[in-house]
């Protein structure tokens, strides 16, 4: 379709489409000159066994979609979305929403399955999303180089494999001024907002609970692989296996986290932190804090479970409990800590301390802990003080 379709505010009810072909929807394929606006799809269902499945558009290749919505159900295999299956080649979607239940295999989203270099703004999705594969998101399954702004998702999201997020399953583009409120569950790389991130996230938050049976589980982002996260927060409880954090499960490969915080309780087995489970040697955390309680077995910290990178201008106030390498701020430190403090109670069985549990070749400068509130007189780094007023 390369023309102009203006719905004039009208609706189409109980549309039913089923097929085995790719590009399935009311409009199967929309080209760069195509325009669809001011139309709503009420109820109905679209189901297919192929790829690019959406209730309104299967594949939007450079077209323009605005003032549109859908409220039915959508199911498919690949690139499955409540409104659009695939949005690519500079395609734009604005002032749009979906209240559809969506299910599929790979790249499944409440609004768009795959956004490949497109733009989505002033959009939201409220339906539940389930995926039998990976890259499952409340709004977008995969954001590959696209831009998402002024957007949110509120449905509950679940996937059986990796990269599952309340807003986006996997992000290599930009996300700004966005949030998610639904609960999120899956195996590995599970986040309240984004499952796996190599892009940028700013002015964003997540409030839903996050549960993962594997590794890289975070209140906002499951795994941050070289991405940049700023002006962001998470408030939901987080539970998982290893690499579990109130904000980010693991921060790898020059990943940067700044002006961020987490308030939810966090529990896991190894490398568990109130903010970040594991901060890699090239990772950086600054101007950040965590207030939730943290529990785990080994490498457990009020802010970071294990730090091999840099932490600056940061603090933690939540209680921390674990087995070995347990600290009010950091469980195990192999990197650099500066201008940081901890006030939460700390308990452990071995290598535990008010600020740092185990310091293995790392450095601590201007680091403090409250000896009264933490219940600890010793730490593997930092200076103990007797009152938070001195901090």
Descriptive terms for the model:
391 residues, mainly beta, 53 strands
Task: Describe it.
This protein is mainly β and 391 residues long. It is built from 1 helix and 53 strands. The strands form 4 sheets. The chain has a 15-stranded parallel β-sheet. The chain has a 13-stranded parallel β-sheet with strand order 2-5-9-13-17-21-25-29-33-37-41-45-49, with no helix packed on it. The chain has a 13-stranded parallel β-sheet with strand order 3-7-11-15-19-23-27-31-35-39-43-47-51, with no helix packed on it. The radius of gyration is 22 Å and the shape is elongated. The model has no long low-confidence stretch (mean pLDDT 97).
Q: Would you spell out the secondary-structure blueprint of this structure?
A:
Blueprint: E1 4-13, E2 16-19, E3 27-30, E4 35-42, E5 45-48, E6 51-54, E7 57-61, E8 64-70, E9 73-75, E10 78-81, E11 84-88, E12 92-98, E13 101-104, E14 106-109, E15 112-116, E16 119-125, E17 129-131, E18 136-137, E19 140-144, E20 147-153, E21 157-159, E22 164-165, E23 168-171, E24 174-180, E25 184-186, E26 190-191, E27 194-197, E28 200-206, E29 210-212, E30 215-218, E31 221-225, E32 228-234, E33 238-239, E34 242-245, E35 248-252, E36 256-262, E37 266-267, E38 270-273, E39 276-279, E40 284-290, E41 294-295, E42 298-301, E43 304-307, E44 310-316, E45 320-321, E46 324-327, E47 330-333, E48 336-342, E49 346-347, E50 350-353, E51 356-359, E52 363-370, H1 371-374, E53 383-385
Parallel strand pairs: 1-4, 2-5, 3-7, 4-8, 5-9, 6-10, 7-11, 8-12, 9-13, 10-14, 11-15, 12-16, 13-17, 14-18, 15-19, 16-20, 17-21, 18-22, 19-23, 20-24, 21-25, 22-26, 23-27, 24-28, 25-29, 26-30, 27-31, 28-32, 29-33, 30-34, 31-35, 32-36, 33-37, 34-38, 35-39, 36-40, 37-41, 38-42, 39-43, 40-44, ...
């Amino acid at each position: 379709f390369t023309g102009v379709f203006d719905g004039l505010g009208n609706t189409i009810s109980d549309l039913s489409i089923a097929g085995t072909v790719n590009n399935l929807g009311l409009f199967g394929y929309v080209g760069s000159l195509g325009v669809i606006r001011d139309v709503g799809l009420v109820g109905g269902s679209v189901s297919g066994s192929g790829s690019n499945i959406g209730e309104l558009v299967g594949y939007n290749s450079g077209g323009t979609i605005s003032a549109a919505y859908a409220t039915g159900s959508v199911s498919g295999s690949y690139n499955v979305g409540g409104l659009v299956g695939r949005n690519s080649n500079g395609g734009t979607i604005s002032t749009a929403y979906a209240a559809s239940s969506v299910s599929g295999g790979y790249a499944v989203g409440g609004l768009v399955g795959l956004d490949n270099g497109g733009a989505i703004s002033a959009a939201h999705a409220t339906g539940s999303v389930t995926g039998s594969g990976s890259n499952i998101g409340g709004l977008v399954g995969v954001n590959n180089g696209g831009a998402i702004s002024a957007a949110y998702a509120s449905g509950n999201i679940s996937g059986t494999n990796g990269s599952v997020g309340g807003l986006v399953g996997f992000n290599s583009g930009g996300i700004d001024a966005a949030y998610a409120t639904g609960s999120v569950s899956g195996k590995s790389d599970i986040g309240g907002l984004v499952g796996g991130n190599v892009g940028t996230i700013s002015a964003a938050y997540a409030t839903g609970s996050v549960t993962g049976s594997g590794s890289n589980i975070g209140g906002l982002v499951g795994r941050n692989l070289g991405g940049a996260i700023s002006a962001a927060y998470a408030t939901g409880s987080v539970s998982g296996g290893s690499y579990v954090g109130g904000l980010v499960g693991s921060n790898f490969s020059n990943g940067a986290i700044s002006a961020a915080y987490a308030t939810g309780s966090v529990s896991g087995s190894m490398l568990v932190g109130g903010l970040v489970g594991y901060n890699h040697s090239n990772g950086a955390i600054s101007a950040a804090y965590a207030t939730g309680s943290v529990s785990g077995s080994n490498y457990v910290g009020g802010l970071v479970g294990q730090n091999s990178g840099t932490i600056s201008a940061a603090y933690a106030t939540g209680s921390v409990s674990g087995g070995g390498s347990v600290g009010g701020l950091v469980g195990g430190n192999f990197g650099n800590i500066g201008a940081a403090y901890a006030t939460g109670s700390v308990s452990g069985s071995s290598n535990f301390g008010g600020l740092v549990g185990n310091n293995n070749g790392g450095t601590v400068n201007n680091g403090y802990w409250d000896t009264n509130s933490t219940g600890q007189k010793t730490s593997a780094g930092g200076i103990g003080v007797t009152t938070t007023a001195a901090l």
